[in-house]
Amino acid sequence: MKVYDLIVIGGGRASTLAAKAGQIGKKVALIEKSKLGGTCPNRGCVPSKLLVGYADVIRTIQESKRHYISSDIDAIDREKVFRENSEFIDGVDDDYKSMLNENVELFRGEGSFISDKVVGVNDETLTAPTIIIATGSKPKKPPFENAWTSDDVFPIHKIPSSIAIVGSGFIACELANVFDALGVKTKLLVRSETLLSHEDKEISETFQKEFSKNIDIEFNTTVKDAKYENSFFNISFENKKGQETKHICETLLYATGRESNTYTLNLENTSIQVDEEGFIKRDEFFETSVKGIYVLGDAAGEHMLQHAAAFEMNHLYKFLFENEEKPLSFKYMPHAVFTDPEVASVGITEEEAKDKKLDFVVSKTDWLASAKAKSTKLTYPFTKFIVERDSYKILGCHMIGPQSSVMIHQVLTVMHIDNDIRHLKEMLYIHPALNESLLPAAINAIKNIRS
Ligand SMILES: Cc1cc2nc3c(=O)[nH]c(=O)nc-3n(C[C@H](O)[C@H](O)[C@H](O)COP(=O)(O)OP(=O)(O)OC[C@H]3O[C@@H](n4cnc5c(N)ncnc54)[C@H](O)[C@@H]3O)c2cc1C
Description:
The protein has three domains: 201 residues, FAD/NAD(P)-binding domain (3-Layer(bba) Sandwich); 107 residues, FAD/NAD(P)-binding domain (3-Layer(bba) Sandwich), CATH 3.50.50.60; 109 residues, FAD/NAD-linked reductase, C-terminal dimerisation domain (Enolase-like, domain 1), CATH 3.30.390.30. Helix content is 30%, strand content 24%. By secondary structure, the chain is of the alpha/beta class. Strands 4-3-2-8-18 form a five-stranded parallel beta sheet. The site of flavin-adenine dinucleotide (FAD) has 36 residues, from β3, α2, α3 and α7.
Protein backbone atom coordinates (compact mmCIF):
# COMPACT_ATOMS: atom_id res chain seq x y z
CA MET A 1 0.00 0.00 0.00
CA LYS A 2 1.31 3.45 -0.92
CA VAL A 3 1.34 6.03 1.87
CA TYR A 4 0.84 9.78 1.31
CA ASP A 5 0.31 12.88 3.42
CA LEU A 6 -2.76 13.77 1.38
CA ILE A 7 -5.03 12.03 -1.13
CA VAL A 8 -7.25 14.19 -3.34
CA ILE A 9 -10.01 12.39 -5.25
CA GLY A 10 -11.15 14.56 -8.17
CA GLY A 11 -8.85 16.88 -10.09
CA GLY A 12 -11.24 19.79 -10.69
CA ARG A 13 -10.84 22.86 -8.48
CA ALA A 14 -9.06 20.67 -5.90
CA SER A 15 -6.11 20.04 -8.26
CA THR A 16 -4.85 23.50 -7.26
CA LEU A 17 -4.97 22.48 -3.59
CA ALA A 18 -3.01 19.32 -4.45
CA ALA A 19 -0.38 21.43 -6.26
CA LYS A 20 -0.13 23.92 -3.37
CA ALA A 21 0.27 21.12 -0.82
CA GLY A 22 3.00 19.61 -3.01
CA GLN A 23 4.79 22.97 -3.10
CA ILE A 24 5.15 22.97 0.67
CA GLY A 25 6.62 19.47 0.61
CA LYS A 26 3.56 17.32 1.27
CA LYS A 27 3.47 13.96 -0.49
CA VAL A 28 0.22 14.07 -2.44
CA ALA A 29 -1.76 11.55 -4.51
CA LEU A 30 -4.15 13.22 -6.96
CA ILE A 31 -6.73 10.95 -8.58
CA GLU A 32 -8.60 12.08 -11.70
CA LYS A 33 -10.75 9.83 -13.86
CA SER A 34 -11.16 12.24 -16.75
CA LYS A 35 -9.49 15.56 -17.58
CA LEU A 36 -7.67 17.68 -15.01
CA GLY A 37 -9.40 20.99 -14.37
CA GLY A 38 -12.81 19.35 -14.02
CA THR A 39 -16.11 20.81 -15.12
CA CYS A 40 -15.36 24.54 -15.17
CA PRO A 41 -12.65 24.72 -17.86
CA ASN A 42 -13.57 21.51 -19.73
CA ARG A 43 -17.36 21.54 -19.96
CA GLY A 44 -18.72 24.38 -17.85
CA CYS A 45 -18.06 28.03 -17.03
CA VAL A 46 -15.16 28.76 -19.34
CA PRO A 47 -16.18 27.18 -22.66
CA SER A 48 -19.76 28.37 -22.17
CA LYS A 49 -18.65 31.96 -21.50
CA LEU A 50 -16.29 31.86 -24.49
CA LEU A 51 -19.40 31.17 -26.56
CA VAL A 52 -21.35 33.90 -24.73
CA GLY A 53 -18.72 36.31 -26.10
CA TYR A 54 -19.84 35.48 -29.65
CA ALA A 55 -23.51 35.71 -28.68
CA ASP A 56 -22.93 39.18 -27.20
CA VAL A 57 -21.40 40.49 -30.43
CA ILE A 58 -24.20 38.98 -32.50
CA ARG A 59 -26.89 40.49 -30.28
CA THR A 60 -25.21 43.92 -30.48
CA ILE A 61 -25.35 43.77 -34.26
CA GLN A 62 -28.91 42.41 -34.29
CA GLU A 63 -30.06 45.16 -31.93
CA SER A 64 -28.21 48.01 -33.64
CA LYS A 65 -31.55 49.32 -35.01
CA ARG A 66 -32.08 50.81 -31.58
CA HIS A 67 -29.20 53.14 -32.42
CA TYR A 68 -30.56 53.95 -35.91
CA ILE A 69 -27.98 51.65 -37.53
CA SER A 70 -29.17 49.10 -40.02
CA SER A 71 -26.95 46.09 -40.26
CA ASP A 72 -27.21 42.47 -41.31
CA ILE A 73 -25.10 39.51 -40.42
CA ASP A 74 -23.90 37.95 -43.68
CA ALA A 75 -22.56 34.75 -42.22
CA ILE A 76 -21.41 33.19 -38.99
CA ASP A 77 -18.63 30.64 -39.27
CA ARG A 78 -20.04 28.31 -36.63
CA GLU A 79 -17.46 25.62 -37.45
CA LYS A 80 -14.69 28.04 -36.57
CA VAL A 81 -16.45 29.24 -33.41
CA PHE A 82 -16.90 25.72 -32.05
CA ARG A 83 -13.48 24.56 -33.31
CA GLU A 84 -11.80 27.38 -31.40
CA ASN A 85 -13.86 26.43 -28.35
CA SER A 86 -12.83 22.77 -28.65
CA GLU A 87 -9.18 23.76 -29.15
CA PHE A 88 -9.29 25.66 -25.88
CA ILE A 89 -10.70 22.57 -24.14
CA ASP A 90 -7.99 20.38 -25.72
CA GLY A 91 -5.30 22.39 -23.93
CA VAL A 92 -6.85 22.38 -20.44
CA ASP A 93 -5.53 19.04 -19.15
CA ASP A 94 -1.92 19.92 -20.10
CA ASP A 95 -2.23 23.36 -18.51
CA TYR A 96 -3.36 21.85 -15.22
CA LYS A 97 -0.75 19.09 -15.43
CA SER A 98 2.02 21.66 -15.81
CA MET A 99 0.89 23.25 -12.55
CA LEU A 100 1.64 20.04 -10.58
CA ASN A 101 5.08 19.39 -9.08
CA GLU A 102 7.34 16.44 -8.17
CA ASN A 103 5.57 15.90 -4.84
CA VAL A 104 2.22 15.29 -6.53
CA GLU A 105 1.68 11.82 -7.99
CA LEU A 106 -1.12 11.85 -10.53
CA PHE A 107 -3.27 8.74 -10.88
CA ARG A 108 -5.44 8.57 -13.99
CA GLY A 109 -8.41 6.47 -12.98
CA GLU A 110 -11.51 6.26 -10.87
CA GLY A 111 -10.81 6.43 -7.16
CA SER A 112 -13.03 4.60 -4.71
CA PHE A 113 -12.95 3.71 -1.04
CA ILE A 114 -11.93 0.26 0.13
CA SER A 115 -12.32 1.35 3.73
CA ASP A 116 -12.40 4.67 5.61
CA LYS A 117 -8.76 5.55 4.99
CA VAL A 118 -7.90 3.27 2.09
CA VAL A 119 -8.53 4.31 -1.50
CA GLY A 120 -8.23 2.10 -4.54
CA VAL A 121 -7.38 3.36 -8.01
CA ASN A 122 -6.64 1.12 -10.96
CA ASP A 123 -4.82 -1.79 -9.25
CA GLU A 124 -3.21 0.23 -6.49
CA THR A 125 -4.19 0.92 -2.90
CA LEU A 126 -3.34 4.24 -1.27
CA THR A 127 -3.68 5.63 2.22
CA ALA A 128 -3.19 9.01 3.91
CA PRO A 129 -4.17 10.64 7.20
CA THR A 130 -5.96 13.33 5.20
CA ILE A 131 -8.26 12.65 2.24
CA ILE A 132 -10.20 15.24 0.26
CA ILE A 133 -13.20 14.25 -1.81
CA ALA A 134 -13.75 16.73 -4.65
CA THR A 135 -15.58 14.64 -7.19
CA GLY A 136 -17.97 17.36 -8.39
CA SER A 137 -21.41 16.78 -9.84
CA LYS A 138 -22.87 15.62 -13.13
CA PRO A 139 -25.84 16.62 -15.30
CA LYS A 140 -29.07 14.78 -14.59
CA LYS A 141 -29.55 12.01 -17.14
CA PRO A 142 -32.05 12.86 -19.90
CA PRO A 143 -35.09 10.55 -20.02
CA PHE A 144 -34.72 9.95 -23.78
CA GLU A 145 -32.03 8.10 -25.67
CA ASN A 146 -29.60 10.21 -27.74
CA ALA A 147 -30.61 13.41 -25.93
CA TRP A 148 -27.68 15.60 -24.93
CA THR A 149 -26.62 17.21 -21.69
CA SER A 150 -24.29 20.21 -21.40
CA ASP A 151 -21.39 17.70 -21.36
CA ASP A 152 -22.15 16.98 -25.04
CA VAL A 153 -21.78 20.63 -26.02
CA PHE A 154 -18.19 20.87 -24.76
CA PRO A 155 -16.52 19.76 -26.97
CA ILE A 156 -19.24 19.55 -29.56
CA HIS A 157 -19.14 16.63 -32.00
CA LYS A 158 -21.72 17.97 -34.46
CA ILE A 159 -23.19 21.47 -34.63
CA PRO A 160 -26.94 21.02 -34.92
CA SER A 161 -29.13 22.99 -37.33
CA SER A 162 -31.92 23.00 -34.74
CA ILE A 163 -32.09 22.35 -31.02
CA ALA A 164 -34.74 22.02 -28.31
CA ILE A 165 -33.49 22.71 -24.80
CA VAL A 166 -35.41 21.50 -21.77
CA GLY A 167 -34.87 23.55 -18.62
CA SER A 168 -35.33 26.96 -17.07
CA GLY A 169 -32.21 27.56 -15.01
CA PHE A 170 -29.03 29.45 -15.82
CA ILE A 171 -27.41 26.68 -17.89
CA ALA A 172 -30.53 26.19 -20.04
CA CYS A 173 -30.93 29.96 -20.59
CA GLU A 174 -27.25 30.59 -21.34
CA LEU A 175 -27.09 27.73 -23.86
CA ALA A 176 -30.41 28.74 -25.48
CA ASN A 177 -29.10 32.28 -25.95
CA VAL A 178 -25.80 31.05 -27.41
CA PHE A 179 -27.33 28.56 -29.85
CA ASP A 180 -30.05 30.99 -30.94
CA ALA A 181 -27.56 33.84 -31.47
CA LEU A 182 -25.32 31.56 -33.51
CA GLY A 183 -28.21 30.88 -35.86
CA VAL A 184 -29.22 27.44 -34.64
CA LYS A 185 -33.04 27.20 -34.67
CA THR A 186 -33.69 27.07 -30.93
CA LYS A 187 -36.71 26.26 -28.80
CA LEU A 188 -36.69 26.37 -25.02
CA LEU A 189 -39.13 23.99 -23.32
CA VAL A 190 -40.03 25.05 -19.79
CA ARG A 191 -42.10 22.88 -17.45
CA SER A 192 -43.25 25.76 -15.25
CA GLU A 193 -44.28 29.31 -16.15
CA THR A 194 -41.06 30.92 -14.93
CA LEU A 195 -37.47 31.26 -16.05
CA LEU A 196 -34.72 31.65 -13.44
CA SER A 197 -37.20 30.91 -10.67
CA HIS A 198 -34.58 31.27 -7.92
CA GLU A 199 -34.07 34.95 -8.73
CA ASP A 200 -36.03 37.77 -7.09
CA LYS A 201 -39.54 37.72 -8.64
CA GLU A 202 -39.25 41.16 -10.26
CA ILE A 203 -35.90 40.20 -11.80
CA SER A 204 -37.19 36.93 -13.25
CA GLU A 205 -40.32 38.67 -14.59
CA THR A 206 -38.26 41.33 -16.41
CA PHE A 207 -35.79 38.69 -17.55
CA GLN A 208 -38.57 36.58 -19.00
CA LYS A 209 -40.09 39.53 -20.86
CA GLU A 210 -36.79 40.58 -22.43
CA PHE A 211 -35.36 37.09 -23.02
CA SER A 212 -38.55 35.99 -24.82
CA LYS A 213 -37.97 38.72 -27.43
CA ASN A 214 -35.13 36.62 -28.87
CA ILE A 215 -35.84 33.09 -27.76
CA ASP A 216 -38.77 30.90 -28.78
CA ILE A 217 -40.09 29.55 -25.46
CA GLU A 218 -42.90 27.13 -24.61
CA PHE A 219 -43.96 27.49 -20.98
CA ASN A 220 -46.05 25.03 -18.94
CA THR A 221 -44.77 22.26 -21.13
CA THR A 222 -43.97 18.62 -20.42
CA VAL A 223 -42.07 16.55 -22.94
CA LYS A 224 -44.11 13.37 -23.31
CA ASP A 225 -42.06 11.57 -25.92
CA ALA A 226 -38.95 12.09 -28.02
CA LYS A 227 -38.13 9.56 -30.71
CA TYR A 228 -34.77 9.75 -32.46
CA GLU A 229 -35.11 8.63 -36.09
CA ASN A 230 -33.01 9.44 -39.17
CA SER A 231 -30.83 11.87 -37.18
CA PHE A 232 -33.80 13.92 -35.97
CA PHE A 233 -35.91 14.03 -32.84
CA ASN A 234 -39.64 13.79 -33.09
CA ILE A 235 -40.77 15.42 -29.90
CA SER A 236 -44.26 15.61 -28.53
CA PHE A 237 -44.93 17.93 -25.66
CA GLU A 238 -48.06 18.70 -23.74
CA ASN A 239 -49.32 21.93 -22.19
CA LYS A 240 -51.19 22.30 -18.89
CA LYS A 241 -54.55 21.68 -20.61
CA GLY A 242 -53.30 18.38 -22.01
CA GLN A 243 -53.00 19.68 -25.59
CA GLU A 244 -50.21 17.98 -27.51
CA THR A 245 -47.77 19.67 -29.93
CA LYS A 246 -45.25 17.98 -32.23
CA HIS A 247 -41.83 19.42 -32.84
CA ILE A 248 -38.96 18.19 -34.99
CA CYS A 249 -35.35 19.14 -34.30
CA GLU A 250 -31.89 17.72 -34.75
CA THR A 251 -30.78 17.91 -31.13
CA LEU A 252 -32.60 17.61 -27.84
CA LEU A 253 -30.67 18.91 -24.85
CA TYR A 254 -31.65 18.44 -21.21
CA ALA A 255 -30.41 21.07 -18.76
CA THR A 256 -32.65 20.17 -15.86
CA GLY A 257 -30.15 20.30 -13.03
CA ARG A 258 -27.09 18.53 -11.71
CA GLU A 259 -26.77 15.67 -9.29
CA SER A 260 -24.26 14.04 -7.01
CA ASN A 261 -21.29 12.24 -8.51
CA THR A 262 -20.44 10.24 -5.43
CA TYR A 263 -21.91 6.93 -6.59
CA THR A 264 -18.47 6.00 -7.99
CA LEU A 265 -16.80 6.26 -4.60
CA ASN A 266 -18.10 3.07 -2.93
CA LEU A 267 -19.02 5.08 0.13
CA GLU A 268 -20.80 2.02 1.51
CA ASN A 269 -17.30 0.78 2.46
CA THR A 270 -16.95 3.80 4.75
CA SER A 271 -18.83 5.65 7.48
CA ILE A 272 -19.14 8.76 5.29
CA GLN A 273 -22.72 10.00 5.34
CA VAL A 274 -24.62 11.50 2.43
CA ASP A 275 -27.82 13.55 2.39
CA GLU A 276 -31.09 12.44 0.75
CA GLU A 277 -29.82 13.63 -2.65
CA GLY A 278 -26.51 11.79 -2.34
CA PHE A 279 -24.34 14.84 -1.61
CA ILE A 280 -21.69 14.31 1.07
CA LYS A 281 -22.49 15.76 4.48
CA ARG A 282 -19.86 17.89 6.19
CA ASP A 283 -19.36 20.20 9.16
CA GLU A 284 -18.25 23.84 9.02
CA PHE A 285 -14.61 22.68 8.77
CA PHE A 286 -15.39 20.60 5.64
CA GLU A 287 -15.01 17.38 7.59
CA THR A 288 -17.26 14.47 6.67
CA SER A 289 -18.57 12.03 9.25
CA VAL A 290 -15.13 10.36 9.14
CA LYS A 291 -12.29 12.22 10.86
CA GLY A 292 -9.61 13.36 8.43
CA ILE A 293 -11.83 13.01 5.35
CA TYR A 294 -12.96 16.32 3.90
CA VAL A 295 -15.27 17.30 1.04
CA LEU A 296 -15.27 20.44 -1.11
CA GLY A 297 -17.01 21.89 -4.14
CA ASP A 298 -20.02 20.45 -5.93
CA ALA A 299 -19.58 17.09 -4.15
CA ALA A 300 -21.01 18.74 -1.02
CA GLY A 301 -23.95 20.11 -3.06
CA GLU A 302 -23.96 23.52 -1.38
CA HIS A 303 -23.56 26.35 -3.90
CA MET A 304 -22.40 24.38 -6.96
CA LEU A 305 -20.54 27.29 -8.52
CA GLN A 306 -16.89 27.56 -9.48
CA HIS A 307 -16.19 30.60 -7.32
CA ALA A 308 -17.70 28.73 -4.35
CA ALA A 309 -15.42 25.73 -5.04
CA ALA A 310 -12.39 28.04 -5.37
CA PHE A 311 -13.28 29.86 -2.14
CA GLU A 312 -13.70 26.53 -0.34
CA MET A 313 -10.43 25.25 -1.77
CA ASN A 314 -8.45 28.24 -0.41
CA HIS A 315 -10.23 28.04 2.92
CA LEU A 316 -9.57 24.31 3.31
CA TYR A 317 -5.90 24.75 2.34
CA LYS A 318 -5.45 27.37 5.06
CA PHE A 319 -7.28 25.20 7.57
CA LEU A 320 -5.21 22.09 6.79
CA PHE A 321 -1.79 23.59 6.17
CA GLU A 322 -1.69 27.08 7.68
CA ASN A 323 -3.43 26.44 11.01
CA GLU A 324 -6.27 28.85 10.25
CA GLU A 325 -9.13 27.41 12.23
CA LYS A 326 -11.91 29.62 10.90
CA PRO A 327 -15.19 27.84 10.11
CA LEU A 328 -16.38 28.02 6.53
CA SER A 329 -18.68 30.97 5.99
CA PHE A 330 -19.69 32.12 2.53
CA LYS A 331 -21.02 35.31 4.09
CA TYR A 332 -22.21 36.82 0.81
CA MET A 333 -22.45 34.45 -2.16
CA PRO A 334 -22.97 36.22 -5.48
CA HIS A 335 -23.95 34.72 -8.80
CA ALA A 336 -24.63 35.89 -12.34
CA VAL A 337 -26.50 34.69 -15.38
CA PHE A 338 -24.59 35.50 -18.56
CA THR A 339 -27.44 35.91 -20.99
CA ASP A 340 -29.10 38.77 -22.81
CA PRO A 341 -30.24 40.39 -20.51
CA GLU A 342 -27.52 39.77 -17.94
CA VAL A 343 -28.51 39.19 -14.33
CA ALA A 344 -26.46 39.37 -11.13
CA SER A 345 -27.46 38.89 -7.56
CA VAL A 346 -26.21 38.58 -3.99
CA GLY A 347 -28.10 37.84 -0.79
CA ILE A 348 -31.77 37.21 -0.26
CA THR A 349 -34.73 38.04 -2.47
CA GLU A 350 -37.71 40.15 -1.39
CA GLU A 351 -39.80 36.98 -1.17
CA GLU A 352 -37.23 35.36 1.16
CA ALA A 353 -37.09 38.51 3.32
CA LYS A 354 -40.91 38.36 3.67
CA ASP A 355 -40.85 34.64 4.49
CA LYS A 356 -38.29 35.29 7.20
CA LYS A 357 -40.45 38.15 8.53
CA LEU A 358 -37.47 40.52 8.55
CA ASP A 359 -37.81 44.25 9.13
CA PHE A 360 -36.66 45.53 5.75
CA VAL A 361 -37.22 48.10 3.01
CA VAL A 362 -37.11 47.58 -0.74
CA SER A 363 -36.02 49.97 -3.47
CA LYS A 364 -36.20 49.40 -7.19
CA THR A 365 -34.33 51.98 -9.27
CA ASP A 366 -33.78 52.14 -13.00
CA TRP A 367 -30.34 52.90 -14.39
CA LEU A 368 -31.34 55.94 -16.41
CA ALA A 369 -29.56 58.42 -14.12
CA SER A 370 -26.31 57.22 -15.70
CA ALA A 371 -25.68 58.63 -19.16
CA LYS A 372 -23.67 55.53 -20.04
CA ALA A 373 -26.68 53.40 -19.13
CA LYS A 374 -28.96 55.73 -21.08
CA SER A 375 -26.67 55.43 -24.10
CA THR A 376 -27.51 51.71 -24.32
CA LYS A 377 -31.09 52.81 -25.12
CA LEU A 378 -32.41 50.07 -22.89
CA THR A 379 -35.15 51.03 -20.49
CA TYR A 380 -35.54 47.79 -18.53
CA PRO A 381 -32.26 47.71 -16.49
CA PHE A 382 -32.76 48.19 -12.76
CA THR A 383 -31.20 47.56 -9.37
CA LYS A 384 -33.21 46.29 -6.46
CA PHE A 385 -32.01 46.59 -2.89
CA ILE A 386 -33.40 44.79 0.13
CA VAL A 387 -32.06 46.56 3.20
CA GLU A 388 -32.50 45.93 6.92
CA ARG A 389 -34.32 48.91 8.39
CA ASP A 390 -32.40 49.45 11.64
CA SER A 391 -28.86 48.66 10.55
CA TYR A 392 -28.74 49.83 6.90
CA LYS A 393 -27.38 46.34 6.18
CA ILE A 394 -27.81 45.17 2.58
CA LEU A 395 -29.69 41.88 2.78
CA GLY A 396 -29.94 41.45 -0.97
CA CYS A 397 -29.06 43.22 -4.18
CA HIS A 398 -30.40 42.15 -7.58
CA MET A 399 -29.57 43.67 -10.94
CA ILE A 400 -30.65 43.18 -14.50
CA GLY A 401 -28.92 44.99 -17.33
CA PRO A 402 -25.65 45.04 -19.30
CA GLN A 403 -22.56 44.32 -17.19
CA SER A 404 -24.60 43.44 -14.11
CA SER A 405 -22.00 40.79 -13.24
CA VAL A 406 -19.39 43.57 -13.12
CA MET A 407 -21.54 46.17 -11.34
CA ILE A 408 -22.54 43.84 -8.49
CA HIS A 409 -18.92 43.68 -7.31
CA GLN A 410 -19.11 47.24 -6.00
CA VAL A 411 -22.04 46.26 -3.79
CA LEU A 412 -20.22 43.09 -2.75
CA THR A 413 -17.20 45.08 -1.65
CA VAL A 414 -19.33 47.27 0.59
CA MET A 415 -21.05 44.20 2.00
CA HIS A 416 -17.69 42.55 2.74
CA ILE A 417 -16.18 45.57 4.49
CA ASP A 418 -18.88 46.49 6.97
CA ASN A 419 -22.10 46.14 5.00
CA ASP A 420 -23.64 49.57 5.31
CA ILE A 421 -25.53 50.84 2.25
CA ARG A 422 -24.73 54.45 3.22
CA HIS A 423 -21.21 53.99 1.77
CA LEU A 424 -22.80 53.67 -1.67
CA LYS A 425 -24.44 57.05 -1.16
CA GLU A 426 -21.40 58.82 0.28
CA MET A 427 -18.69 57.68 -2.14
CA LEU A 428 -17.58 59.51 -5.28
CA TYR A 429 -18.59 58.03 -8.60
CA ILE A 430 -16.98 58.60 -11.97
CA HIS A 431 -19.48 60.57 -13.99
CA PRO A 432 -21.26 59.24 -16.03
CA ALA A 433 -20.14 55.63 -15.64
CA LEU A 434 -22.62 52.76 -15.62
CA ASN A 435 -22.01 52.33 -11.87
CA GLU A 436 -23.35 55.83 -11.27
CA SER A 437 -26.79 54.24 -11.44
CA LEU A 438 -26.03 52.72 -8.03
CA LEU A 439 -26.07 56.17 -6.45
CA PRO A 440 -29.82 56.85 -6.88
CA ALA A 441 -30.47 53.18 -6.06
CA ALA A 442 -28.72 53.61 -2.69
CA ILE A 443 -30.35 57.01 -2.11
CA ASN A 444 -33.80 55.51 -2.73
CA ALA A 445 -33.19 52.63 -0.33
CA ILE A 446 -31.98 55.02 2.38
CA LYS A 447 -34.94 57.34 1.75
CA ASN A 448 -37.28 54.37 2.22
CA ILE A 449 -35.64 53.56 5.54
CA ARG A 450 -36.06 57.13 6.76
CA SER A 451 -39.60 57.69 5.54
C1 LIG B 1 -22.49 24.48 -18.58
C2 LIG B 1 -22.02 24.95 -17.23
C3 LIG B 1 -21.75 26.29 -17.02
C4 LIG B 1 -21.31 26.73 -15.78
N1 LIG B 1 -21.08 28.06 -15.61
C5 LIG B 1 -20.65 28.51 -14.41
C6 LIG B 1 -20.38 29.90 -14.22
O1 LIG B 1 -20.54 30.72 -15.13
N2 LIG B 1 -19.93 30.30 -13.01
C7 LIG B 1 -19.74 29.41 -11.96
O2 LIG B 1 -19.34 29.84 -10.89
N3 LIG B 1 -20.00 28.08 -12.11
C8 LIG B 1 -20.45 27.62 -13.30
N4 LIG B 1 -20.68 26.27 -13.47
C9 LIG B 1 -20.51 25.36 -12.30
C10 LIG B 1 -19.02 24.96 -12.07
O3 LIG B 1 -18.49 24.45 -13.27
C11 LIG B 1 -18.88 23.94 -10.96
O4 LIG B 1 -19.54 24.42 -9.81
C12 LIG B 1 -17.42 23.68 -10.59
O5 LIG B 1 -16.71 23.27 -11.71
C13 LIG B 1 -17.32 22.63 -9.47
O6 LIG B 1 -15.97 22.32 -9.22
P1 LIG B 1 -15.56 20.96 -8.46
O7 LIG B 1 -14.08 20.95 -8.36
O8 LIG B 1 -16.37 20.82 -7.24
O9 LIG B 1 -16.06 19.79 -9.43
P2 LIG B 1 -15.56 19.42 -10.89
O10 LIG B 1 -14.95 20.58 -11.56
O11 LIG B 1 -16.69 18.74 -11.56
O12 LIG B 1 -14.39 18.39 -10.62
C14 LIG B 1 -14.63 17.08 -10.18
C15 LIG B 1 -13.63 16.16 -10.84
O13 LIG B 1 -13.67 14.89 -10.20
C16 LIG B 1 -13.53 13.87 -11.17
N5 LIG B 1 -14.08 12.64 -10.58
C17 LIG B 1 -15.37 12.37 -10.28
N6 LIG B 1 -15.46 11.18 -9.66
C18 LIG B 1 -14.19 10.69 -9.59
C19 LIG B 1 -13.63 9.50 -9.05
N7 LIG B 1 -14.37 8.59 -8.43
N8 LIG B 1 -12.27 9.33 -9.16
C20 LIG B 1 -11.49 10.26 -9.77
N9 LIG B 1 -11.98 11.39 -10.29
C21 LIG B 1 -13.31 11.61 -10.17
C22 LIG B 1 -14.29 14.41 -12.37
O14 LIG B 1 -13.84 13.78 -13.56
C23 LIG B 1 -13.93 15.90 -12.31
O15 LIG B 1 -12.79 16.19 -13.08
C24 LIG B 1 -21.12 25.80 -14.71
C25 LIG B 1 -21.37 24.42 -14.92
C26 LIG B 1 -21.81 24.01 -16.14
C27 LIG B 1 -22.08 22.53 -16.34
